[in-house]
Design goal:
This protein has 16 helices and 8 strands. The chain is of the alpha+beta class and 421 residues long. It folds into 3 domains: 127 residues, no CATH class; 97 residues, SH3 type barrels, CATH 2.30.30; 116 residues, Alpha-Beta Plaits (2-Layer Sandwich). Strand 1 and strand 2 form a beta hairpin.
Amino acid sequence: MRDLIYNGLCAIRLPQDIAAALSAIILMGLILGASMLVYWVLRTYLLKIIHRLTEKTSNTWDDKLMEARVFHRFLRMIPLTVLWVFIDRGLPGEFVLLKRLIFSAIILIGVRAVEGFLNAVSEVYHQSRSESRKPIRPLFQALIIVVYLCAGIFVISVLIDKSPWKLLGLMGGLTAVIMLVFKDTILGFVAGIQLGANDMVREGDWIEMPKFGADGDVIEVAVNTVKVRNWDKTVSTIPTYALISDSFKNWRGMKESGGRRIKRSIYIDMNTVRFADEAMLDKFKQMELLRDYVIKTQAAIDQHNTEKRIDLSATVVNGRRQTNLGIFRAYLVSYLRNHPDIHQDMTFLVRHLQPTAQGLPIEIYVFSSDQIWTNYEAIQADIFDHIFAAVPEFGLRVYQQPSGADLTALGASLQVSCAGD
């Protein structure tokens, strides 16, 4: 082609040097035009065909590739490659700097395409609902950084026409500077590998880290930061390495267990604890959840007292007797065992704690079968609503510190008592 143009210019009696220069310029223009034509055809027809195919398929990965503009970037490489090949073949000893610039542009566009591909793969993976998926975004981000560093070395080597391996040797002397500049990225990369390998945190996990004011769901695990959407809808940003160097609480175990713990105490006024007399036992036998327990327990107690020939009339502390507090605990166990929202296969305790100045704590330690926060709170509230309402039926009283109204009522009753005397 160049010879044809050159011969045509010489035929019109142009000087040879001018004809050679003009033939090179004309050929360069034709090559540019051909490259632009290739790009126009690819963008106008091929890209539209690819877009329509991705819309028709039921897969999500091709849609993510389209959103990440992977196809756009790969198609841009084709006309640049055509341009570089034509210039290299048609003008081998000329436009050297232009060829280097074009080749550098091909490398950079290729890196951008690889970046889009990796981001698309990461998005598809993190959108999966698998409970066992691990956060791979930090690994992909670190890989993108490595790809860009390698591309930068190759671009510089192309522009200065030196071997990239020599540049890598020079980079070795700058290791200390690189370590200082990319310290956070390196620490985050190492932390990301440890988090993924040990399965310490995943996107969607509920974590608690008071040091950084984080208490909510993990929405993103990146190289440098982990983002947590708190329950008040604010977002806390935690350095990724902090999840390795500091402690945090991950509630994933609670979700995987199938239950959510209810651990709460009520304080009983110890002055109201007493032995159950016949009238109380008769009353308790009328309670559906207690009838069998009271009858069986009383039968066992009567048998024991008879066998030991204990004189029950001498004092109430002789022999074995039921107490209103013991029967109340049995009622709580029966009530919770029959509750439809309590997980019966997990830890189940109704126990006394150490008495305090505020009374005797009766702790409820069970697990709800519903883990959703709002449902869990409603279950817990319903249970303790019932318990507080049931306490007086056992001759017990819940302890609470006297309020101003209580003291006023007590003062008024004393005044009436004194006036009566």
